[in-house]
Design brief:
There is one protein chain. By secondary structure, this protein is α/β, with parallel strands linked by helices. The chain folds into two domains: 146 residues, Rossmann fold; 172 residues, Rossmann fold. It is built from 14 helices and twelve strands. The protein has a six-stranded parallel β-sheet with strand order 2-1-3-4-5-6, sandwiched between helices. Strand 5, helix 6 and strand 6 form a beta-alpha-beta unit. It starts with a strand and ends with a helix.
């Protein structure tokens, strides 16, 4: 018998919202509609819920009673509300409720809100983005925790054009939300200082992504003193991402964001064989293998970031090709058809 699915999360239909929470929620929805095991998929879109919280609550309750299986993907602000709502409703219905965690904040959330644990343990499955997250939750006596890495639908037809990755100037980029906690300032400072030290533009840095209004002025000030070697390039449509990224030498990801989980930008980079130079923060070292498919450096250490950039630039052609090919092959682990297939098997 085909099942009816309910999906509750930030779907942001009819918007251009491109934050990690929304992208992953949409990716889950887009993949589930491909499966004929599900006769109907109902949704509750939590994006912009403050405009009409009563309507959202009614939609969530209606979706609950229409569905056989519920998949919830709440952010930190919505977790306490939705998990309590659905667990209470489930006292009378015994629905199959699964929680896909987006980001790496749940362990700390439990520490700050220990009462949430009893609700989490009423769920049929909790899916986290890294093995360490799984271990962290299990040490807090959370049950039914499963590993489900981040994923994307990938068009793997890209051939690495090494000629576009030559220099100087060598082209690097960031590809994330443009905010202080993503380490954008550290990336700009590293590149600006290196070019000043060398006396010419050894590196150009292009910054992509939506800008945090509170960081905009600071970013603009930092770009001004970079002597035009750093530029903000705006946002990129999902379909144009591979073509945009494949011409760079490396992607920089100096994050120290407290809620960091499995950054989707890693998958975008791997998909075109682009090595990532990332801070050794949270769960990054579970995804980036140092000097295998990318490079790691100590968090908030601009000097170490500079050393890793130089290390990558100084690789001979053969060693650089190896690290790029390793990045490309890593993307196979995070293809949507692989990850979602396992998830659907577990649901049914």
């Amino acid at each position: 018998m085909n099942k009816r699915i309910g999906v509750c999360g930030s779907l942001a239909f009819h918007t251009n919202q491109i934050d990690g929470q929304t992208i992953k929620t949409k990716n889950v929805y887009d993949e589930l509609i491909k499966y004929n095991q599900f006769s109907r998929i109902f949704t509750t879109d939590t994006f912009g819920w403050r405009k009409n919280p009563v309507k959202l609550l009614i939609n969530a309750v209606l979706m609950f009673f229409k569905s056989d299986i519920l998949i919830i993907l709440p952010g930190k602000n919505g977790l306490g509300v939705f998990i309590r709502l659905f667990v209470w409703l489930n006292l009378f219905s015994k629905k199959n409720i699964r929680y896909i965690v987006i980001g790496g904040w749940l362990s700390e959330y439990i520490d700050q809100n220990p009462g949430i644990s009893k609700y989490l343990n009423k769920l049929n499955g909790i899916y986290v983005e890294s093995l360490k997250m799984k271990s962290d939750l299990e040490t807090r006596d959370i049950k039914n925790v499963k590993h489900m890495p981040n994923f994307k639908r990938l068009d793997k037809t890209h051939i690495i054009d090494y000629n576009t990755r030559q220099g100087p100037p060598y082209r690097f980029c960031t590809f994330s939300r443009v905010t202080k906690s993503k380490g954008i300032e550290e990336a700009i400072k590293a590149v600006t200082a290196m070019n000043f030290e060398y006396g010419y533009d050894l590196i150009n840095l292009d910054i992509y992504g939506p800008v945090d209004p509170q960081f905009k002025e600071r970013m603009e000030d930092l770009i001004k003193v970079s002597n035009a070697s750093v530029k903000y390039k705006g946002t990129v449509d999902h379909n144009a991402t591979p073509k945009t990224l494949q011409r760079y030498k490396s992607l920089l990801f100096p994050t120290f964001y407290e809620g960091e989980g499995f950054p989707g930008t890693f998958i975008d980079a791997f998909n075109v064989g682009l090595p990532v130079i990332a801070s050794d923060w949270k769960y990054n070292n579970e995804i980036i293998q140092d000097e295998v498919n990318g490079l790691l450096f100590p968090v908030n250490d601009v000097k170490s970031l500079q050393s890793k950039i130089i290390k990558l630039i100084e690789l001979n052609n053969e060693d650089y090709k190896i690290i790029c090919e390793n990045a490309l092959s890593t993307s196979d682990l995070y293809r949507a058809e692989v990850v979602i297939h396992k998830f659907v098997e577990d649901l049914l």
